[in-house]
Every structure is written in C-alpha cells, then in structure tokens.
Amino acid sequence: MEAIAKTLYSIVNSPQFDKEQLCGEKLKLSQAFCLLWHDAKSGDVCGRQCSDESNAGVLAAMLVDLAALDKLEFFKDTKTCVLGLKCDSILLKVNDTKPTETFLDAAIFDKILELQRQNPHKPIVVKDLLSKYRKESGTIALDSLVKLDILGLEIEKCGSHKYPTLKTGISEDLKSQLRAFALDGAEPSSYLRALLTLARCSDSEQIGAPVLRKHFTQEEYYCKKAKENLNALVKTTKKCNCKCNAEKK
C-alpha cells in the first residue's frame, strides 16, 4: 500500500495535475480505472473480490478524484526511523466537508469525515486508509458504472458478478488513448497521466498486471515497449514531483 500511497501523492502534487481537466471528464478517474480493469468482452473483473492491489488502485483514484474536487489535500511527513533512516508517510487533510453528491461520498469521503470527527487532531495516514477500506472500492465504482448504464450486472448462481458492456464507446476510447501513449508515444492528458500512473503502479505490485496487460498483445507489451513506456510514466511523475518540491524549498 505504501507504493500506491506515494504514487498518489506524486500525482496530486505534480505540475501536470490539472484539477479542472479531471473535473471536466465524463467519468471520475476511479470509474475509468475500473473500465480498464474490466474485461469488455467477458464482463469479468479479475480479482474484484480478492485483489488488494487493484482495489487499492481504485481507492487511490477515488482520493485523486476528491483532490480534484478540492475536498482533500495530501502532504508528506518525514521522520527518522530505525538506524537513522528517513521514513515518509503520506497524510491527508480535509479541505471541504460538503458532500460531493456522487458515489464518492459513500465509497470513501463519508468514512474520512467520520475518522476526522472521531480523532480531529490525529492525521489520517493514506497507507492505512487504503489498507482498511480498499476491499469494496472496485465493486462500488463498478456499480456506479451500472447506474450510468455503461455496464450491466449479472449475478451468477455461484454468486460471482459479471459486468457486460452496454456502451462500448467510452471503454474503446480509453483503450485507444492507452495504446496511443504506450505504443506511439502520444502525449497524455493530465487525466490519462494520472489514470495510467495509478494503474501501472497497481499492476506492478501483483502478478499478471490485471488492469493494463490485457489491452496489448504479448509482443506489444514486452517487445514493442508498452510496459517500458508505462513504467517510465510512473518514474517521470515521481521525478516531476521531486523537482517541484525542491523548487518550493
């Protein structure tokens, strides 16, 4: 969870983070994350109930959505740990307690407000938040797409869920933008940069890269450097953030 928390911090403090653009998109970042995670052909969402990393990626995207709405602010707390090493914790602060009137309220914002109410002087550690509330994040965001009639919902006898695609346009557009960046070097928008950075970070923490890998052939992903370009995007976001922080000092 630490890697995802630090990646989230890098995104929202990057000079490329454009709140206005994110708020102007048709879907929240967390909804777009789920569309990339979702298999448009089968309706399956691999690891929806058991993947800590993918669900944490969705929850991190929800926190970025809230940052874009000026509800939350993130900052770094550096302390000296064992053997004199410097340890960073990513913390969050609530800037605005008014509801968003979206699925983000029930998904995580109400929970953050309750944590703040219970311990008003205790900082909220993002890593702990991701660990505690990640489990249902994917399902909540997917259900919000069902309400928009972008996905359907089929519950099978065994209790497993399938989300058949009802409107293909948005999913196809996201996939097209992903491939244009990873294979052709197209410049990503602020929205796409944040989305792919979180998705690749989540994928890198688990076997099989369930969010992004399926959108490429094996040759494209490994030989044509799609994976390499996605990894470079994550590194670039972190470097831009470090440079920006250094300039502030």
TrEMBL record:
It is a peripheral membrane protein. GO terms for cellular component: Golgi membrane. Gene3D superfamilies: yeast vps74-n-term truncation variant domain like (1.10.3630.10). It is found in: Golgi apparatus membrane. InterPro entries: GPP34-like, GPP34-like_sf. Keywords: Golgi apparatus, Lipid-binding, Membrane. One of its GO terms (molecular function) is phosphatidylinositol-4-phosphate binding. Belongs to the GOLPH3/VPS74 family. This is Uncharacterized protein.
